[in-house]
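look at this:
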Amino acid sequence: MEKQVTIIGAGLAGTEAAWQLASRGINVNLYEMRPFTKTPAHKTSMFAELVCSNSFRAKGLANAVGLLKEELRLQGSLIIEAADKYSLPAGGALAVDRDLFSEYITKKISSHPQINVINEEMKHINTGELCIIAAGPLCSDSLARHISELINEHNLHFFDAAAPIVSKDSINFDLAFWGSRYDKGGKDYINCPLNQEQYQAFYDQLIAAQVQPLHEFEDENYFEGCMPIEVLAGRGIKTLLFGPLKPVGLTDKQGEQPYAVVQLRQDNLAGTLYNMVGFQTRLKWPEQKRVFRMIPGLEKAEFERFGVMHRNTFLNSPRVLLATGQLKEYPKLFIAGQLSGVEGYVESTASGLICGINAARIAKGSAPLVWPQETAHGALMNYITTTPTKGFQPMNITFGLIPALKTKIRAKKARKQAISERALNTLKAFSDVHR
């Protein structure tokens, strides 16, 4: 039995993992390269620094991230404890005073007798010792190279270019139709056809829509290898017709070739989520909803994830990761946070909590756990470890990842509340068994 675990990175995932381990009597060596080695995004040397927004997103059990936060509370999360303690008025969201939030976590971690903070850059990982890698999306070049060597280079990505994902139930099949180009591969895609007038209206709004500004550490040249759809459209009105909206090889319900077609491809094994093929974008999220709902068949689309394009180091997790957070080939190594393929503050925290608890179990001679899929924690880990590996992209928690209720509930809010109540009851039972 090993009574010590190494953690690389003192962000949200790393500090949460450290807290879970220390709370279970396990000694932790927590490596954080700041302040001696800086990153282009961090401004301070404090732990769990919020480098982008100060919001942990929506509160309440009618929202999936609200459910995830409540599950974290039930499991003794340090991050959510700090967020609740230093919350700010923000309507239906949980926003925090970012400085007080980080100061609190830094003090709690630094003063814990079983956590040893080491301000050094970790460049090499010992695969024979328990270690949680939580170095974040901007991990050092040296560490990224070593991770790449361990898991094979093609399984490590350095740029997040994700298309929007919509709920299948929200697609209008009076207009959309199933099919593949030239009938190859069966009816694998959902196709949304546009006539010339509809395409012109969509195109005009697309090129005029507002985009997210680049972070100061990002270079627009990053986008050349995977062009945002709005940039591609800006090259000419017909450019998309020879790219992601090309209609060739497809026939609509009337047996005719549409003027343009938007295709959606299955994104999870359950077949409840579909991503918009070729629609990686930097449009602001409200603009994505407004413009993409102009597409016939998507007028009432529910977006389970909006498109994003930014620098982000992450693994092709379905190939290399287990639902316990362990690497398949190196069971003593855990991957937590955005490196693991989760997206967002709360999701990174949840990943860190799972890795911390499981590393503690292994250190004590017990088997690691897989959280039930009916919980937000389990659904998130299931997604990043079982989704199709081709084109895998990071994901936020959504209700679309959680198995549906056996009983149909028509009212959307009531249905989500019921899913959350089932998740919390399932988690309580799971926690009682595995105390």
